[in-house]
Amino acid sequence: MVGTPILTRDSWELNIVMSTQNGPDRPKTAAESADVNKVVSETKAAQDAGIPMVNLVVDGKPVSVPKGSLVIEAAFSAGSDIPYFCYHPRLTSVGACRMCLASVELEMFGQRRASIMATCTIPAADGMVVKTTTPDVKKAQNGVLELILANHPLDCPVCDRGGECPLQNMTISYGPPNTRFIEDKRRYVKALPISEHVVLDRERCITCMRCTRFASEIAGDSKLGLINRGAQSEVGPFLGGTFDSNFSGNTIEICPVGALTSRQFRFKGRPWEVKSSDSICTKCSNGCNIAVGHRMGEVVRINGRVNEQINEEWTCDKGKFGNADVNAPERLTAPLIRDAHGVLVETDWDTALSAVITNMQFVSENYGANAIAAFGTTSGTIEDNVLLGKLIHGVFSSSNLAYQLTQGPRRLPKATIVSVESAKHIVIVGMDLAYDQPMYYLRSVKAQRNGATVITVKTPSELAGANLTSESVVLVPDTLSASDYEAIQAISSEAGCDYSVLVSDANGYGPYLAGFDGADARVEDLHKGLSASEKANEVLNGLASGAVKHAFVLASDPVGTYADGQLASKAFSADAFVVVTSQFMNATAANASVVLPIASFAETAGTYLNVDGQLQTVDAVVPPRAGTRPQWQVLLELNARAGNPLPVFNPSDVLPAVLMQGGSE
Amino acid sequence: MAKFTDDTKRRLDALIARYPTSKAALLPALWVAQEVYGGWLPPEAMQEVADHLGVPASDVAGVATFYTMYNKRPVANHRIEICQNVACMVNGADELIGYCERKLGIHAGEMTSDGGFSVERVECLGACCHAPALMVGSTYYENATEQTIDKLIAELGNMPSESVRPPQSQMPEQGEF
Ligand code: SF4
Ligand code: SF4
Ligand code: FES
Ligand code: FES
Question: Which stretches of A302-420 are DSSP H helices?
């Protein structure tokens, strides 16, 4: 070790004083701020709700927190800061990292004494006196960080977490600027892929067990575990397996270091150059709140954003890695029109749009208003549907606004996402809840941890053996046949319970709000339930028989998705003039006369009604891919070309119009 | 390929019955699995334990890898476990380990190509007063010397394995603990 400078005890102690920027205003990642906000707002809510409280003093400030809060949480509520890694407000405490040390004075064996404790494992109690800034505490924090860093590679320049890393933040605020360790650090294969989405760097892992607790407590699948012990501890899927969970992406976000990173985002940009914009996931009906990260106009990653009513702070992997869709090379980037040889060829927007309007006018003049039909969209926004209604019904006076949701009851589910959490008996019929209704699934895991029974039956007839009671919550997909729904209705009404049909698309009920399918619904109507309608069948039959000559299909694929697939494919192979708006080629578009390439969810604005009836409006995050246009712009232009100029679109204007006046007027 | 027989399952059920939760039976269940799987715990063994106890496989792996006396690799017929802790070390454990390695032509942690012997460094065997100590199977050899090694290798060379510890006869039956 000749020539290796070794710090003396004196210079070491001197360095402790040099830590900067600690306290509540220290640098924080978005997730760290969210943790603190959650704790503070829950304390506030508890104070207002008159829940039993305990009173203690933190850094000289009296604070009263709900019974059962941890000391670290009391400190947050008092406006103090305590550094932490393994603590997470949505996970159980394990006290794995020892970062949260503070001085806690309490009555023990008839004597008051203060000692340094891990505050994430100690429940706050009356009369405690907590100090977070004493020299002893500082020294302890320095020591813990020095130990955590003893094996940490500090390869921040090539770490995707660098710049938004709790370990970096804690080190600058509470850590030693130097180390006394001169020994080698442990070495592992650096980037080990453990699933399609996640890569693991064991050298960086600080064994906080956040990811493993997430897997067992939140995702409920225990797909990650910790093996070996001490400095040899490693996180990973069961020996030799892969981390295949539909919720794996969340572990990337809660890992307080760069040990778990996203394969998709890997080296796509430094976190500080990635701008983050609020949005809503549209990959399924749950409507998770997300933060879309974009760099130079490209969507590079998606993170969860807090919404206690829906996703708490999680996402599923479909949503988390959903930017693949936005960036997919297979996206349509020019309008397509069928040429004289019957082949779809690329064309420009002006040609495509005027072909659409010319045909609409021709059909309406020669065959009457009802020879024109429109199919609403469940993946686009409510506004998109409204604007299509304005064109087809408002301008061309056709009453053929068709759309088929399900063969079951058309009403919003009684069981909301949040309500599932407190259910006692949950029965899932014919779906894989974790993949089909991910946020319902996460709440069902919570319910199960609180003692609920959760069972899945494959077919409606098996429901009879599920011991339903009036308290049971029955969750049903929107893809069953009419007779299945009748069977479910019969069995559940006998047991005196309700059943909830959960739609799959981002805006399942959107077309109803815009007056499609004979409905002229408000959200309240959807809660009550709409009466049955044969509109979609009628229009499909009209297409098949040749009575309908022009069909405008808004971002959907009736051929691929309608229950009566045979009728749908017959309808769309007849020779009506079919216009399809779509991001990708699909079965309906393949037979269309004109295909209009539209913007992805991140490139358009508007409102969605999620599976349990929550309206959410989003703005565009990035400009549309060259050649594509947001659907609302396309529809505004078509309205204008058809002689119905509408004011410039703004989601917050159109939406009240829908809700107040009914859609299609 | 599953190796648990009906008899194994009966033994596991008897263990489970002793505890308030099946998870609590994990340690003794792993001993049984290690015996059934020929002295070590391949992932399939852990999976079988997980399935039978209704515990996530990742938790079983966590426990099995935490404890050094569950073997995660195939083991030799005779495992020569030499204590390397302080009392034994100052009494020549390192030299003894070196001798053993040279004699068998392997490094500590390895086994001979015929699977007959392995040499392993282990922590305190609780026989410090007769250091250096080593053990093979459940037999202790105290005040061990090079001659002890020569003798035991010569004697054990042709004997069947006793590598599963603790021997089942020493495991407490129902009602103990
Ligand atoms: S991988 Fe990350 S979250 Fe998991 S234990 Fe290691 S540091 Fe914690
Ligand atoms: S659950 Fe649905 S809304 Fe939420 S992230 Fe997944 S796909 Fe998106
Ligand atoms: S935050 Fe308290 S021990 Fe990790
Ligand atoms: S140190 Fe070797 S037996 Fe205790």
Answer: 317-320, 323-326, 349-367, 382-389, 417-420
